[in-house]
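ok trying this again, last paste got cut off
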Amino acid sequence: MSTPIEGAEVSGDQISMFLVNVLEGRWDYAYPAYKNNSVFHKIKINESRGTALHMAVNDGKAELVNALVSAIIEHEGREGLKSDSALKSTNERGDTPLHLAASRGFIGMCKCIIGEHGERKDLIKAMNNKGETPLFRAVLTCQTQTFVYLRHVSKDIEVPLTNSDGDTILHRAIWGELLDLALIITHCYPVLMDTRNKEGVTPLKVLAHKPSAFKSGLNLSLWKQILYYFTISLESEALQEQNLIKLKVRSVRSTVWFVFRVLSLLGLGVSTKELEDIKKTRQKHRWSRQLLNVFMRTPYESYMGISGGQPFLKFDEDEDKNVAQTFITQQQLESTQQIT
């Protein structure tokens, strides 16, 4: 068994061979060098793609990422995160491997990089060239489960929630019409609801400039309008159907929905994709109403906002176990349980 060498000098030919092996995916040849010499941990394969670990994460190779991270920890020690750790290496965007894992929704890789017990959770504070943390990247790419994991593991440290443009994670979630995630953010970090960005815009004002987020902004044909109003959400109805009248209403709506499906198959209606798009639109509008109701609890503060500044993520309170559900009910938003 070979013994790890701490930063031993390597020749140009060895580096060239390592780069070629990584670029061509010949990890059986590249990994031994990586494991035995820490010099290879920080070598950039190229500027855009970053280090070997960046490439493994971006390619979704979970087992390889685990092996590469283990090699880094074996060289750097398990006591904590070093200031010059290879895990802090960046690509041309300033992204660390954790940034990439978070933006792709690779929770397992995030846990591997951060550590089972959060030993390296300070990596969540790292910002790329745009001032985005891995937590911020998870929001931008709508990786809800990854976002919930990262905010949970970093609950006792300060993590910037604002990028270089002054937008908070709530601003960006609403701009991207990720309204279910925006609901989760308001529930977790109510301080962001009245935080202005550099232009003095609050999240509520961003929502107000999103007419497509509301039913009043619809521009559908007659058939699609009928479908919109008769579209039913099985998830929500499972919570609502309690009496005969509601069951009858459900039956009528289901019949109409079935008829339109038949018509679409005959080429007389709308396509299956259009039906799904209508259902998604209706769901988005449901979330927008919920989000607006949250803002209206403190209408003046939500609209006018407070002075900008750098909000940080720090928790001392219980958290919602069900915070990442696809459909957010009012009861879920008002009740909190500790994540275990």
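PB: full thing came through this time. The first helix runs from residue 12 to 23.
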